[in-house]
Amino acid sequence: MDGASVDDLPVEALNGETVDQLVWRVLGRASPAVERVLAANPQIADAGQFLTLGQRVVIPAAARRPTTAPMTQLWT
After folding, report:
1. Can you give the pTM of this predicted structure?
2. Which domains does the chain have, with CATH numbers?
3. Do 22 and 30 meet the contact criterion of CB atoms below 8 Å apart?
């Protein structure tokens, strides 16, 4: 977790939790936050699919920013 920012959020995993489950539990959404979490924690991608109890995962500030999708107006 080199280069961690003070705005990054350290979180401890539950036993057998996946990264996307952890991100959903903490943020209430997955994409694109999961990709940003994996980029900030390259060591967890090498450790396998499931996290271990208490494994520390950093959720970067960029992953916590709300995402907005462009709105399409169907009727005028």
Report:
1. 0.75
2. 9-64 (3.10.350)
3. no
